[in-house]
Design goal:
By secondary structure, the protein is an alpha+beta fold. Helix content is 22%, strand content 33%. The longest helix is centred in the middle third of the chain and has 13 residues, at 51-63.
Length: 129
């Protein structure tokens, strides 16, 4: 992150995908994770379900009525920026990946969280919810 980025509190975030949200005129992609495309389908024991829509809905439900602390540039950007965020003390990327609603980037820090979610058949790695 550039040196002028600061931690700000972003109120009333609305999930636009499983790893992206909009709040206060900003579009933020959670860094270190790969979101699930809205039109993605997942299969579990030969049952296919719309996991992209479900992932966004779960993320949105988790965010509802809260505010996120994110490191973002000082000016509002027209385009989405990748940024680390937290909800209270909870790392948002870690929550998404450990619950199976996003995957870890290959070079990221969430690899073990993804392995745990896969093993526990959570989120996109499990049955339709």
């Amino acid at each position: 992150m550039p040196g002028d980025w600061r931690e700000v509190l972003l109120y009333r975030p609305i999930a636009t995908s499983s790893a992206m949200f909009e709040a206060m005129g900003r579009k933020v992609v959670i860094s270190g994770v790969r979101g699930i495309d809205l039109d993605s389908s997942c299969s579990f024991h030969d049952v296919t379900w719309p996991c992209g829509l479900r992932a966004r809905a779960v993320f949105n439900s988790w965010l509802r009525g809260r505010a996120l602390h994110c490191f973002v540039p000082p000016d509002v950007e027209r385009f989405a920026v990748a940024a680390p965020c937290r909800l209270g003390k909870q790392d948002v990327g870690a929550w998404l990946v450990s619950n199976g609603w996003a995957t870890a980037l290959p070079s990221g820090i969430y690899g073990k969280a993804e392995a745990t979610a896969r093993k526990a058949e959570m989120g996109i790695f499990g049955p339709a919810q």
